[in-house]
Amino acid sequence: VQLVESGGASVQAGGSLRLSCQISGLKYNFYCLGWFRQVEGKEREGVATIDSDGHASYGDSLYGRFTISHDNATNTLYLQIVPLKPDDSAVYHCAADEFQICHPAEAVLEFDAWGLGTQVTVSS
User: What is the pLDDT of residues 63-81, one digit of tens each?
Assistant: First the structure.
């Protein structure tokens, strides 16, 4: 499975971003997709997951500002963040796995494949 993220940017607090992840190589119709983020020197944080039935989970402190979605036609995974806060600054990675536990959001940290990430920087 290959994943390529895009959409990261430098933005001001209160703004919004939509991150994209192009996915290729999934072989089965039973899969989990997700996003995690990492700040240098800190542990990775599970942001959100979505399963092949469209059920989503979010990190405990992130519910309400993040929306994960998957376009099956183009096999593109999205993460909408609004409003952005300075604490959201991180490298965001998308991840995928098949026949894997998909919930809660922290499950994304165990997925087999992930992309190189896209940088999000939020200024106050």
Answer: 789 999 999 999 999 999 9
